[in-house]
Amino acid sequence: MATNGNGAIPSLSLLLLLFSFFFSLPSPCSATATKPSALVEQPPVLLKYHNGPLLKGNITLDLIWYGQFSSSQRSIIVDFLNSLSSASTPSVSSWWHTTDKYHYRRGGSSDVVVGKQILDVNCSLGKALKAFQLGALTSKAGQGNGGGVIHVVLTSADVAVDEFCESSCGTHGSGRVKNHRSVYAWVGNSVSQCPGYCAWPFHQPLYGPQTPPLVAPNGDVGVDGMVINLATVLAGTVTNPFNNGYFQGSAEAPLEAVSACTGIFGKGAYPGYPGEVLVDKTTGASYNGVGVNGRKYLLPAMWDPQTSTCKTPM
């Protein structure tokens, strides 16, 4: 199965560039110093449409849990996915339906529902996966359905994947199985491998300003980090499913709907600072979106094609 890789966050070199920008700014000498974001105006993000098909309509998410996940960890992620079509304020669903604006020329929306869930607890392909094996795992969930199914592979904390923690926290890709087009996404739990890279801002960053991490809204740094990256790759999957939809840069390493807005979670964000978000008065957890079962999540900004700006949930 052929694949095209799209990182959940930009490459490590891009992150280093962002942090080097931060350090090149004048150092504040007091607590009242002007924030760096007010000193330098960033160039606007512009994703180009490359005339390819997008995913819209009713989309089923089939989940392949690869490795050991507790029932609590699975429920955090399943509740997040179910929240994409719920109605709360500030809403996980309203964040997701920013993807509808990518269809504004032809109408339509991307409505998702969780389908089958497969538990591969014993790691049938081993605990060191090559990139092509991610696509192979989707065969466990059956064939694609003309773009109406996204196979989502979720790997546990003790599973290594090619380029995981080096240049990617997750990917999405496509291919064909017999005569069926298949689309898949993958995200891994980084808590024991690179939380400073793939679970920021719930862990101190691997590079850059060592500011205190935010408290994870569901009490699990690795899984709450997975939610951020899952949100990123799913948005990329529906707006650039076959590598000819919306993106910026090269098709081999594109910036997509969310990865083009990396590191932005609230108003006033700049490299090393996620921005202004809500804080739960009881737990101290940070969040910007509310979903089903009272869940709270921290969601990354998504590029809005109608305003050409990075839009946060609040």
Structure commentary:
The protein is 19% helix and 21% strand. By secondary structure, it is an alpha/beta fold. Strand 10 (278-279) and strand 11 (286-287) form a beta hairpin. Helix 2 (71-83) packs parallel to helix 6. The model is unreliable at 1-5 and 7-41 (pLDDT under 50).
Q: Give the N-to-C terminal Cα separation.
A: 39 Å
- Strand order of the main beta sheet, please? 3-2-5-8-7
Indicate the radius of gyration in whole angstroms. 18 Å
Number of helices: 6
Q: Helix fraction?
A: 10-25%
- Beta-sheet strand percentage? 15-25%
Tell me the number of strands: 15
Organism: Hibiscus sabdariffa
Main location: secreted
Family: Belongs to the EXORDIUM family.
Subcellular location: Secreted, Extracellular space, Apoplast
Please name the defining characteristics of this protein.
disordered N terminus; 314 residues; five-stranded mixed beta sheet; alpha/beta; 19% helix
Write the layout of secondary structure elements.
Elements: H1 12-24, E1 48-49, E2 57-66, H2 71-83, H3 92-96, E3 110-120, E4 128-129, H4 131-137, E5 149-155, E6 160-161, E7 170-177, E8 180-188, H5 195-198, H6 221-239, E9 246-247, E10 278-279, E11 286-287, E12 289-290, E13 296-297, E14 302-304, E15 309-311
Parallel strand pairs: 2-3, 2-5, 4-6, 5-8
Antiparallel strand pairs: 1-9, 7-8, 10-11, 12-13, 14-15
Helix pairs in contact: 2-6
